Amino acid sequence: MRIPQTNLQKIKAGVHFAQAGLVFITACLALAVLTKSGGVGGEVGYLFGLCFLSIPALIYLVMVPMWTRAWRFANVYAYASLDVLFTILWFAAFCAVAAWNSAGIRKGEKEESSNDKKTGSCSAFGYGSASKCEVSKASVGFAVIICLLFGVTSAISIQGVMKYRRTGIMPNGNTKSHGQAEQLNVEDPNKDAWSTNIDEDDEAGHGNPFGDHNNASSLTMPTAYGQVAQQDNDDAAYGLLHTDQQGYRNTSHDETADELPHPGRQMSYGSSAASLHAETLPVYDETLAPSALSPTGGYEQSPGGRVGFPEGRLKMEFDTKTPQYSTSDPNSFASVSARDRWPVILTGAIDDIHKAVSKESDAEKREEGKQITAGLAKLKYEVQHDRQLSPLVDDGSPDIAGYNAELKQRGEPKWFNVPWLFSECYLYRRMATLFSTSQHWKSYDVFSKQKMSTFRSSRPAVIELAARYNDLTKQLRSTDSALANASEEEREQAQQAVFTEMCEICLWGNATDLSLLTNLSYDDIQKLQGSESRKANEKNIVVNDFPAAFATLKQAQKSGAKERRVDIVLDNAGFELFVDLVLAGYLLQSGLATHIVLHPKNIPWFVSDVVPKDFSDLLNVLVQAKSFYETPSEDDEARGVTPQSLSDKEQQDLKLLFENWGGLYAEGKIVLRPNGFWTEGGSYWRLPATAPSLYADLKESELVIFKGDLNYRKLTADAMWDPTTPFAEAIGPMGRGSGVRVLALRTCKADVVVGLSEGEDERLKGMEGGGGEGGARKWAWSGKWAVVSFCDGNA
Ligand SMILES: O=P(O)(O)OC[C@@]1(O)O[C@H](CO)[C@@H](O)[C@@H]1O
User: Fold this and answer.
1) How far is the CA of 515 from the centre of ligand 1 (A)?
2) Distance (Å, rounded) from C-alpha 212 to C-alpha 272?
3) Could you tell me the distance, in angstroms and rounded to a whole number, from the CA of residue 481 to the centre of ligand 1?
4) Could you tell me which residue, 437 or 208, shows the higher pLDDT?
5) Cα dist. 513→609, 710, 750 in Å?
6) Closest CA to 601 of 509, 525, 707, 745
7) What is the pLDDT of residue 16?
């Protein structure tokens, strides 16, 4: 498959093609001279030989940068060396033959001492006929042109080397390290290449197999990167850092927003072939636009496609001045993530794509898959060896410019000394570029299998909640239920209790995000997700603003406003998305909201964050629950377990749930709205200034619920706030006076936390595994504690 070429690359290839034509002609001329009588010098022989020698060089210089099949031989240094070498060789060639010509002419003139012959002309050529001399002169002319053209291509190649040494990006925009491909023998399943142990490489004393941009040694053939034993105890040990669970566990740009069809196209609920694909999900109801539901799916575009953001102004200027958590802080989860967790996550991704490539029959797709695998391995290597973060490859999305501008402004930091939030977003954005710049793997989600396999393990909680939800729906719809006959005050109390319960279900659904918890056993997941654990965890909510959030929605309901929208900025797919839909369905059916707008990501993100496809996958599970839950998974087969069959009641409950949620979609009451802003590298302090139409859209909402840890880190700019800092202050421009009502539902899985009462942080640090006096806020790393923080930006 052809690799997209930059204009400069195309020009270079064009020059090489011209050279090939000229070389052919020169070879013919030289052959003519060689075969003519009168004798020849080695010079012409050299020229003729050089013509042949140039062919393989030209093939290499043209084909390797252009075809994936040859990409394994790509090497910016080789390109430049060849171009410069042949410039010199052709220079020598035309000088030599020119000298031979003039020697022949001088010889001829000496022999022809008669004065009617023109001096310096071929008429008196000492090595043969005048035509031989003419032909030889012509060959010199062509050789001069070829030499000059090699001079041009040398300049282009040298520019390419300088760019590569500066950015790590090959002239055609790809990232690549030299000579590593041959390590990737996909066919050899026994070759276990995916580990987090870096010492292996160094031990082999091969230095930096990935061509560290500053270290010329990269030209030497590297060892096979990451070739060590299976997931070893180190990884297991890593996982036990906070809890005895560990985990590893996901394009391109904004197309999704465009691809998602406009609503009104009825979904085929209940039809026999009722399997759902993301495309069939209505995004919003025309009749409701241009109200708060007008889609802003893509980036904030302005003429020229640049993110609608004043040129030259850098987004960082909108961030808080409070320092951010950095990977250099040994007391932070940032340091643990960069040194221990990200390599494990990358290894999981490499493993996934490796398996996919080994099953791929299409040769071009396989080759491209190897490139992606190599790119992931390079990224893993750079993280583990504390390399500089290199500029992202431009995959056509406007956010890339923002990332690279910020990288430059941050002075191209190294992995072990960089703000955690930016670097972690950069990590996932860089992974996505490997897929989005490919032809065959653009929409491949390297985390998809993990998302679905873990959702399987949520079966008991999913069935328990489906029954609970359907009961609630029946109660809410019935006219003679206890609730219907209760007094207004009793109904409001009951409503608040159910609201809190539904929000708690939604909150703790966030505890099982896959980027934190590895190899979460079937039993662990049940223990975490069941109603018992929710009850047990109630006391673990260290900031609890549920009443304020309920009061906001209740007040809006009492205002009688026709449209009362609630937004949910989603976090993880699978069980968490399931409980988000439970909350969304409850808010709609209880009348606390009239519309729900869900905000997924555009690209695979932080391993398990929701992308639009995860939505249809979830609904497909509900409509095909029997086959999904009763088909043994790899894990079941490994454990020799045959999944229990679903009872009729359980099947019925899941079918009812599917029809209920399907109906809410069809009516356009639930809308899916991806936006590129959610996967940018900065905090939400930047949202009002850098994503004005998204900001305006969120202001239309009665309540914007931000799910999970990453959204909380972005709201609070992942800064090292004093934990007693008011939430409203820590979220800056999204706080007081912002016009946005913010509710964060977060299980704590990172250092930043605000809104705590005096002494609470010390109390939690003092608990077992809390971190103690040492300063590390370990209690906030495991997802065991949660905060529910509300700020009314309209107050
Ligand atoms: O946003 P989520 O899914 O609740 O958590 C994301 C997370 O797992 O990833 C980051 C660490 O890598 C932290 O923000 C948190 O631990």
Assistant:
1) 6
2) 56
3) 42
4) 437
5) 8, 11, 13
6) 707
7) 92
CB 605 within 8 A of CB 252: no
Q: Are strands 786-792 and 565-569 parallel, antiparallel or unpaired?
A: unpaired
Tell me which residue has tokens 């045959």: 642
How far apart, in whole angstroms, are the C-alpha atoms of residue 555 and residue 561? Answer: 10
Atom of ligand 1 nearest to the CA of 510: 4
How many A from CA of 85 to the centre of ligand 1?
Answer: 52
Instruction: Return the residue matching tokens 């690209």.
Output: 603
Supply 676's token pair: 């590129």
Range with the lowest mean pLDDT among 171-180, 476-485, 588-597?
171-180
**pLDDT tops 60 at residue 656:** yes
Distance 710 CA to ligand 1 centre (A): 5
CA–CA separation, 370 and 70 (whole Å): 12
Probe ligand 1: pick from 333, 614, 679, 710, max atoms within 8 Å of CB?
A: 710
| Model confidence pLDDT, tens digit, residues 304-318 | 444 444 445 568 889
- Round to whole Å and give the CA distance between 27 and 25: 5
User: What is the pLDDT at residue 169?
Assistant: 57
Question: What single string gives the DSSP state of each residue in 635-663?
Answer: HHHHHT--PPPPPHHHHHHHHHHHHHHHH
Question: Closest by alpha carbon to 781, among 517, 509, 455?
Answer: 517
What is the predicted pLDDT for the residue at 49?
Answer: 93
Alpha helices in 509-574 (DSSP H): 522-529, 531-537, 546-559
- Band of pLDDT at residue 635, cut at 50, 70 and 90: confident
Quote the crossing angle between the two packed helices 342-358 and 420-436, to the nearest 10°: 10
Pocket of ligand 1 (CB under 6 A): 337, 341, 424, 510, 513, 515-516, 571-572, 606, 708-710, 713, 749-750
- Sheet with 786-792, strands from edge to edge, namely 541-544, 786-792, 741-747, 703-707, 565-569, 595-599, 670-672
Residue-wise pLDDT for 280-295, tens only, equals: 433 433 344 333 333 3
Q: Are 157 and 83 in contact (CB under 8 A)?
A: yes
Distance CA 248, CA 520 (A): 10
Does residue 747 have a pLDDT over 80? yes
Confidence of residue 181 (pLDDT cuts 50, 70, 90): very low
For 130-147, the pLDDT digits (tens) are 888 899 999 999 999 999
Contact yes or no for 48/42 (Cβ under 8 A):
no
Mean pLDDT check: name the lowest of 474-478, 648-652, 708-712.
474-478
Q: Assess whether pLDDT exceeds 60 at residue 784.
A: yes
Residue 330 has pLDDT above 80, yes or no: yes
Is the separation of the CB atoms in 324 and 717 below 8 Å?
yes
Who contacts 35 (Cβ-Cβ below 8 Å, separation ≥6)?
none
For residue 597, give the 3-state DSSP assignment.
strand
> Which atom of ligand 1 sits closest to the CA of residue 341?
12
Q: Measured in angstroms, how far is the CA atom of residue 716 from the centroid of ligand 1?
A: 14
pTM, rounded to two decimals: 0.65
Helix/strand number for the chain, H first, E second: 29, 7
